[in-house]
Amino acid sequence: MPDTSSQELDRAIYAVPTEQFHGADGRAVRPCTPAVVTHRHLRMLDVRPGARVMDIGIGSGLSAALLAQLGGPDGRVTAVETEPSLAKRAEALYAEHGHQVTVVVGDGLFGYPQGAPYDRILVGTTPPAIPHAWLQQLKPGGILLCGVRIADLPGAYAIARITVDDKHQPHQVEIHHGGYTPMIAASPPGSVTRVVDPQRPEFLLAILGDHEPSTVASLFAALRETAHVEPTPVPDSDYFHMKNWLIAAEPAGLLEATIGQGTGIGIGSPTPDGTAHAAIVTDEHIITDHAESPALEILRALIHEWLEEGALRTHELPARLTRDGDVWHARVTRA
Fold first, then answer.
1. Which of 37, 125, 228, 255 is the most buried (most CB within 10 A)?
2. Structural domain 6-176, CATH architecture
């Protein structure tokens, strides 16, 4: 995958200090993607001198300023922001510091066709699905980098890098570990069944598929008993790659849960006698209903399989886009 050279990006970072876009108290504004993440994604976007770029989701304003620096005097950057106050703030900072960025207030889901075609599009947020309008506004060979959902589980976020062909169709799709804040507050999709603790709504369990609510409630109750906790065999830095591999594998009973011990992905395993078993792996532990749980056995086997396959990173998984009307859904697969 080609990318912006370290030298070019280092020069841009030096020319556009992050502090220019901090608030009056010297701290980063919200919403705001951490600068180190912005720098990594700009490297992936591979912006060349003279490039025409659209930046959707202005945040602090940093990313568009860096894009303008990378594009140089012959480039053009259009920043689209739905929140007028953020747009006004960024526009004032661009004028103050001499960054050549055109700011547009509007719904980023539609892009900005008046400025198209673009060589690159950066979307610093996660849409419910990828609008085809974004692909249409790219030049042939243009690249879109945006947040995506790779499953209907609550935390199934990633970053997509999509290159389009001369018909504005996806030509090359890569999915990378990471994620951006959702563009729109997510409502529970119909392809999962959820149960939420009414007293502690931050605690929940969501399982893929259509299940009886009582069954899911039993899985949640079994998991929260946490009769057995053991260290995870997954290195902390690899947790999200393992998680995305499990999403790609999509085993029966795949679930995600947040309980007092943390958030994790795992397996729910109801048995014919009506008992429920569940196990999740977090970035620190495996948590399950008991040491002999059938769900724990399945989860251990899946983690072992991932390790045996070489502990694949997210970007090493096959990726695809599936069109649904005017939007595209991103998924990772194992083949």
1. 255
2. 3-Layer(aba) Sandwich (3.40)
